[in-house]
Amino acid sequence: MFLPGKRCPERAARHQVALPDGDVIILHDDCPDGWQPNDRAALLVHGMAGCHQSPYMIRVAAKLNANGVRTFRMDLRGCGAGAGLARRPYHAGRSDDLRAAVEHITRMTEASPVALVGFSLGGALTLKLLGEGRHPLPTNIDRAVVVCPPLDLAKCVSRLRRRATRIYERYFVRLLYRQLLTMQPIRPDGTPFPIGSRPASLWEFDHTVTAPLGGFESAADYYERCRPDRFLAGVHIPTLLLAANDDPLVPLSDNAHDAMSGNSNLHPQFAPAGGHLGFIARTGSDPDRRWMDWRIVDWIVNQSAN
Predict the structure, then answer these.
(1) Residue 87: pLDDT over 60
(2) What mean pLDDT, rounded, does the chain reach?
(3) How large is the angle between the packed helices 121-131 and 95-109, nearest 10 degrees?
(4) Which of residues 139 and 128 earns the better pLDDT score?
(5) Is residue 176 one of the residues assigned to a domain?
(6) pLDDT(96) > 60
């Protein structure tokens, strides 16, 4: 997750997407030469404390572009180029933000088929959008990939409390708090939200910041209502789920295995090793050792969605 990657020149066009509550998200549009309306597009959604410049976002977008896919790297609320443009933070329940992004992409690309690619928390958002069934899914979404999604939010937050992973928790809390300081946060009822001192843990951040700003009663209420494994049974498009058995941050929940086995649209690939968004493989048939990147490209470019 923290391994550096090769930086590519930033040439993407930026699109601002206004959300119904007045906040704004940013899409970074990388359009390959020769791309035509009706050609494939993909929406890439980063993980917690990430942005459009996260190395995995840049790498995967470049590889998809090289295969003729137009990519839109999304900055979630308050992230990356969206710093200062939101008054409410992102969280695992804001699937409507992805819906707004897809609708915006549809207006620009006409009838292009769109694939969703979600990493970590972005994968949680993707699964919620695909499986919640509150509104019809945009018809141009025809396939998806989720990588290392935190299927059980409470269990993932609890795992971060272990001594071996506290460094990750401190990193996440520091960046989340820094993003909060760029906002003038307001509660769901429109009243200002005072920013206190930096929370000591991710659970404390979610209990004192995410929950009140997101309209949840508590961190426990947020985790239960937004846990992605609740939505697996409702996924109705071919969806590749990549995960690693040695992921230090995201344990695989038992009920997720049961839900995935009962849904033929879900195609899990559990690697014995790979860490969290790592997946560095031995030299083999792929052009480089980034196993995750090429499984995403294979699924989006070559996978039949019939």
Answers:
(1) yes
(2) 91
(3) 80
(4) 128
(5) no
(6) yes
How far is Cα 118 from Cα 235, in angstroms, rounded to an integer?
Answer: 14
Structural domain of 99: 13-152+228-301
DSSP H helices, the chain, are 55-66, 95-109, 121-131, 153-159, 166-181, 202-205, 211-214, 219-226, 254-261, 291-297
Residue type, 255: N
Find tokens 């119904």 and name the residue: 20
Q: How many domains does the chain have?
A: 1
Question: What is the pTM for the complete model shown?
Answer: 0.93
Token pair in block for residue 208: 């004192």
Identify any residues that bridge with 239 across adjacent strands, giving them in sequence order: 144, 266
- Is 191 a domain residue? no
151 confidence band (pLDDT: 50, 70, 90): very high
pLDDT at 163: 87
Span between the terminal Cα atoms of the chain, in Å: 33
Residue 286's alpha-carbon distances to 1, 62, 277, 293, 297, in angstroms, are 20, 15, 17, 10, 11
pLDDT value, residue 260? 77
- Note the pLDDT of residue 206: 98
Separation in Å, CA 266 to CA 232, 233, 288: 8, 9, 27
Burial class (CB in 10 A: 0-12, 13-18, 19+), 29: middle
